[in-house]
## 1
Amino acid sequence: MGGRFDFAIVGAGMAGASLAAGLAGQGRVLLLEAEDRPGYHATGRSAAFWTESYGGPLVLPLTAASGPFLKQHGLLRPRGALTLARADEAAALDRFAGEFAGLGVRIERLEFAALACRIPGLRGDWQHGVLEPDCCDIDVAALHQLYLAQARQGGAELQCRARLAQARREGSCWQLALEDGRRFSADVLVNAAGAWADPVAELAGARPLGVQPYRRTIAQLAMGAPVPPELPLVLGFDGSFYFRPEGDRLWLSPHDETPNPPCDAAPEEIDVATAIARLEDVAQWPVRRVEHKWAGLRSFAPDRLPIYGFDPKVPGLFWCAGQGGFGIQTAPAAADLAVGLLLGRTGGAVDPAPYLPDRFH
């Protein structure tokens, strides 16, 4: 088995699938997935939401430009996001609110009485808050399947259990060898390998860019009292927690960022216990039991911005990496931007300059 392709994409998570969908019909596309099925790692473990402040001001253009696609395909469910702050964080919270309001994000500043109406049992330490009413839950599985279907319909070829072992540039073509001996060739090699982005770059003879995976833990809790169905996504301004309802359950994270090598991430008991302790510091809600817990890897570049573009030193190697926790909510615009760069198009909706890999050289 083998073949010659215009584009070989390493990784069939959200990044790779969205790129394959955008490139299908523009050339012969090969999508290589190391696991038994696409989306096994970060994509399949995401509790994703679309909220414009997440990732910071330089990620906002990608988030905002992705909203229309997600809405058009019915992939968003209104939620709202409420960021809580203590009294000594009020000035910093005001700066946060002012910055994003100035960028066009709908922001409502709230004090304790209004916060307590939205979060029953809220403890008195949390005196200040910012509401982002436009935050929505994302149907991650449906978005991923949509991209895989579009890629397939456009003629892209998906190969699972296809872990890349060698990548050698010969003239204007990549010679690719998989661990099981299968071989392919491609004009362009796209590195959309998530937590494995730097190892894949090294296989291709490129300098790693410092893409670091971090473990993030989530627990599903059965609560001793009903979870308000209208509860927004609730986040700590200090980055120590977030939680939101999932049916009659609560999804809770300690917002952990533990450096981790690329792997099949698993939750640590201490992280789950930390999350519950932090929840108890926010609201007087009894936790009945932990029903389910999981962990995923979120991968960041050193400057916390995504990386899209051709490697400046290795011809034919394209980076699509470092999407951190905002890779789902930015996927439509990021894929459009990356496809434009791959095909040499200019004038897209988002300026690629902040995301080019040249910034690390």
Note: The two ends are 37 Å apart (CA to CA).
## 2
Amino acid sequence: MQVKHTDSDTDGEEFVFETQTSTVETSRSERLRDFYEEFIYKPGLVALDDSRTLIGGVILFVFILIALVGTRVYPAPVTNQVERSLKPFETMNAPLGSNPSGTDLLAQVIHATPSMLILVTAGAVFSTFVAVFTGTVAGYKGGTTDRVITTISDIAMSIPGLPLVMVLAVTIKPENPAVVGILLTINYWSGLGRAIRSQVLTLREESYVEASRTMGVSTRRILTKDIIPNLMPYILVNFAFAARYCIFAGVGLYYLGVLPADLANWGLQLDSAYNDYSALVGSGSEYLVIVPMIPIALLSLSLVLLAQGLDRIFNPRVRTRMAGESESIEEDDDDVVHTGGV
């Protein structure tokens, strides 16, 4: 782009100067390529190199597939569905066996999966969102805002979680698994929020944050562009652990009969096995307890493995090293092709 400047000397003659200015604009394809490399290609390389991430991702994908497809393919559990008190693998009509009421245990496990995933996701999202919001705002703003939010989080941390959830569950009587998940993490966010606040106190003194603040960048943009991206590894790892907490808390409260019994849940299977069929008294029906414990353990294992893998995926040093190795391998392959393999 040319910009003309007009000047005149003492004799009144005008001179025209043309200044060349260059404008560098990032094309849409370049932005897409940068997004692909930063959020798909590099994390994918690290994930493929880590067996924990692969195993955890596959297990979680199987549960999601069961929730989306299995519930439509496999019949819903009902009384007198198959022969009563079948052992696991005794017949393919009920691969995991049946209880004394003739209900297929595999059907119970499959049809309890969607509500469990909704419960776990809702609880983890709620607790993580509240923790990130309160922690970043308190740590960055400081002053009165910090004192108020810190006081609220201290109060939430001081209240015993289990009695609080029990009182709220009896009062509200939630029927939606998402509401149950939120109730389970009603004060779980406070510990994570305090930890995030401590890290934000350090990040807000960094040079790039100070530069943004000096240029008049809004607080919301500083938090979303400068602060939170640097906390993403820590946030995602704690998201996985919050989801794991929801599994055990939900199953435990369903087992105790605190939460409503009209929602399909693996905890209700444990409660029924123990209270209705005395499966832990040596009656030979221990499989009634083992069957629902298997998906609980597998789903929890997948979240633990993913949490460990996410720590490597969002480690910039690991991502850069993996991407550099991949590019060097591709260059070596190209050299071999061009030289005829010599």
Note: The first strand starts at residue 2 and ends at 8.
## 3
Amino acid sequence: MRRLTRTVAAAALATALALVGGCSSDSDKSEGGGGSGAALEKVTYLTSFGNFGRDSYAWVAKDKGFFKEAGFDVDIKPGQGTGSVIQTVTGGQADFGPIDLTGGILQMGNGQAKDFVAVAAIQQRTMAAIVSVEGKNIATPKDLEGKKLADTPTSVVRNLFPTYARLAGIDEKKVTWVNGEAQGLIGMLGSGSVDGIGQFVVGQPTVEAVAKKKPVVLPYSNVMQDLYGNALITSTKIAKEKPEMVKKFTAALLKGLEYSLEHPEEAGEILKKNVPAANPVASAAELQLMAAYVRSSNSGTAIGTLDSGRVAKSIALLQGAGALKQNLTPDQIIDFNLAPKA
């Protein structure tokens, strides 16, 4: 791991803070020529959080022609975290996007969102974490007391923090949160204006490259082991009216995910081609770290599976921590008829 992050740091990620601003037009012509001439169905897809390497698989699915083969013309736009992605999908401005499944449970279980369903897992374990850097005197969760943290208001890391704090023995009232935008969080940490940021564990290479300091990572999975990571969602309307379309799109996206994990360097270059500010070395490193989270002993060999029992355990954990105002069942947030089977 140290060797990997040192390699990425040497890449001098000078423009990483602009990752969120990518566009999708350049890859339209790279999806492959020809075709049967049948009209492609236009789809708008949101990434989970900006245009970092962890979300590059959507660009890979577009660039390698997986979407086109499935009958879709996909416009990829940068998302701004779980709450924002849910609002955009349920509002009809996008058709699909990945959210942190636990964040989705929190939103639905507290009456903050409805009319969406998850149709595939992207990561089998949560990647949510608090990330700091050496020199901040942070080594354990308890050390976060008296510190200032930054994240977007709708991020799952921030919204799940009260539950994490309760389970990790942190006095939440002694931690200060400030707002930041997706593309600026690492810069805030690097400049010293905050002591830590909400981040995914796979962000370590990018943090080290930008902040020029060794990251200190406090993964939420250390105290909440049953939680899923990101899951692909769509609106309940689309799921009900176009189930076969949802299955085809999901299969094409997961094909891009699998290809990206098998060819992380190529995936990094594809992201760079479509999002000029992206750093392909950091992107590849993120994918290499993410691979261990995409499959688990629970999922077997199939990518994208969702298990009702595990989702029920996640709901029970959040209910036990007092984080949910309403009772939920797994099939209220997951459409198991549309999700890949183990």
Note: The longest helix spans residues 243-262.
